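debug: dumping io for the single-chain case to check the tokenizer round-trip. Nothing else runs in this session.
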Amino acid sequence: MTRGWADIFQHARGSVRDLAPIVIVIAVFQFLVLKQPLTGVFELGIGVLFVVIGLTLFVYGLELALFPIGESLAVALAQKGSALWLVTFAFLLGFGTTIAEPALTAVAGEASRVASGAGVIENTDAARASYTLGLRITVAFSVGIALILGVLRIIFGWSLPIMIISGYALVIAMTAIAPPNIVGIAYDSGGITTSTVTVPLVAALGVGLASSIRDRNPMTDGFGLIAFASLTPMIFVMAYGSIISWL
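debug: decoded output
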């Protein structure tokens, strides 16, 4: 118990250290550039305290549960010797973690609102809900496919640079033909997937898998899955937008 509290306090100090530059920048611009008094000091202080507590517990929880779970499952499935189960687990992990991303839900909802206002879809609650759900499923499905590609790359030793460069070449090609109103959303979708829920489990999956396969180095082969998770949503969302525009 004592060791657990010591770890939490250590993470709390790290959270304060990480947040300090943000607080300093905001204070400098508030007092020296804008030269305006700071209102609601008590509320701001409470908010910063909540951020520190939340960030501390989140990071501690990642190290305590999500990283070990993802890594142990990857090792167990690799030792089981079933590529089918490993690929299935990778897809479901990518899909499940991405569909649960709060950032994806927020951006998809905002995208549907803007799309209805611009006349891309009907300005009804049903149309916006359908657009939001379709966008979320598309991004989640693309991350599932990304993890399949990442797992196969680790198993067969495929070249990460070649796969990533080829993927971005496809992104550039699709950008030229995709509807302009979907390109920005597609690019943002790539960043959404590398957020709080997805990254820890994806990274643990790659490291655990590379650690359990002979002739694979966790440092050189275990990372790179997150790059796929950032790349494939751009491709799939532009394809999704193109299909929506054709219907």
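debug: round-trip ok. The radius of gyration is 21 Å.
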